[in-house]
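Anyone else keep sequences and structure tokens together like this?

Example one:
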Amino acid sequence: MKRLQLCAALVTAGAAVIAGAVAPSAGAATHSGSGLPTIRVSGSGKSFSVHVPSSVTAGRVRVVVSGGKTGAAGSLVRFASGYSFAQYRADYIKTNQLFGKSPKKAIALYDSVLKKVDYLGGPDAQPGKHTTMTVVLKPGRYTIFDDNGNSPRNGHPVVVTGPSVKRAAPASSATVRFLAGSRFGGAKTIPAHGTISIVNADTKSPHMFVLQQVKPGTTMKQIIAALQSESNKPPAFALPGGTGSDSINPGNRVTLTYSVPAGSYVELCFQPDPKTGMPHALMGMVRLVTAS
């Protein structure tokens, strides 16, 4: 799974090493919340497929991403009126191209895109695995796309109709928060198997949630050094376990149901900062937690 967003060109080689190591290895997730309209996503590239129920009524909706043979990452967004997935993809590609020529223009374009996109999260899955997310959607037109590549692709419409129906969220045993100043907050002990809530309490930027297993005793100093390293080798402390969600806008919240090995983990966010384009992990949005 590649966690690539606009301005991904600014991710340093060291950050890319960590990003490459955080591919989710979630086991079969428990699909809590019976009765929820369910959008199913599988595969990537030419094998990417989306199944949307014939009727998706507003309220809590479930998104299940199955990795298939290649792994998959589905990102759910709502575009501003008059802005399309094709334009979003073109702006994404142009922004990355501009970073090598004119970083100021790239950041300006990125900032303009953020004003036209409401990021609602999106579960990721390794080959043969799946991950589940729930989110409350208002009536309107949404897009779910393949985010398991170098740029957004395979946009698929999701039409949500009213009136809104109140549907219960899966029971959550912990909450992770994105805080102002690009920091993580909330529980430092999360379930190894179960459901957590992810809340973007920041008011200025979207954030993504990357949960990466690390060897016991790994320190923040080691993680920061790996992020800043120019090595193309995976860091020695990285282990296979992990899960995560794609970008979530300020004020939005999702639940994520997953299964990972118990142990030590690091939370990271690789969302580019709206003012500098620097991935938030390189600005200190890194936190050690325990899954038990």
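And example two:
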Amino acid sequence: MIVPTKEDIERAYELVAKGVPRARGYRILVKPLEASQGIEAGELEKFETLHAVGLVTKSDERKNREDIGSNVGFVMDIGPHAYSEDRLSGAWCKEGEVIAYARYSGDRMELPTGSGVFYRIMNDEDVFCAFEMPEEDITNE
């Protein structure tokens, strides 16, 4: 059994505060896209005047709930064993892609603690799709 020293514990706090999280095993590290703070599309007609002057109607609590339930994010890192099982027949995503994943999947982590920056670490099988630009938009650039 390892008994951490005071220096080990201090180093651990520094790693969490300044380190870069890396996916391990068959996990994927995702930076969820944040919910918008503004008026939702379905509310534009109801709050047309308020929207015209730039008033934000969505509360911080509601935005936070939507952030927690977000199911779209940016792939930051893929563990070395992700998509290695025969049943998955190849990677479903790669680093740098924007993906949709199972709502509330994995574990939500704030790193560093108190920063307001959240990540999700999830199983490789929780990825549903990756977003791509339609062909006509790619050729018109």
